[in-house]
Amino acid sequence: MSLAHQHLSRRTVLKTGMVAGFGLSSVLAGVSGISAAVTSGVLIGGTRMDTLISALNNIGNPVCLAAANRLAALDPNSISFDLNLRRAGMDAGNARVLADALHETNGSSRPVLRSFSAS
Q1: Model's pTM, two decimal places?
Q2: DSSP label at residue 79
Q3: Cβ-based burial of 39 (10 A; exposed 0-12, middle 13-18, buried ≥19)
Q4: Membrane-crossing residues (predicted)?
Q5: What is the pLDDT of residues 25-43, one digit of tens each?
Q6: 13-29 pLDDT, tens digit each
Q7: Of the candidates 33, 51, 30, the residue with the CA atom closest to the CA atom of residue 102
């Protein structure tokens, strides 16, 4: 077998293995996420909105608490939601907490984040 063919075969195997590995980990993460959300009792349209609601509650300022209450009251059949946190006065630590929660919620199917603003 030529060197170029060996390299191509190894590359193909690695790419296939990586795709399969990432796909399997995504499926397993989705199943465990749904399981955790169902156990916690906060499952909105098959997503993990509880993480975002919890983050907003942990930030604890009036703007974030109001947003958390709106998200908690969101219709389970909603397709999308808006998260507008004007005059929230968040510091860098609060912004990081919110970013992490948004990142975790991002891969969810519904509802999806339609618009976001913060100041």
Answers
A1: 0.59
A2: S
A3: exposed
A4: 20-44
A5: 443 444 444 444 434 444 4
A6: 445 554 444 444 443 44
A7: 51
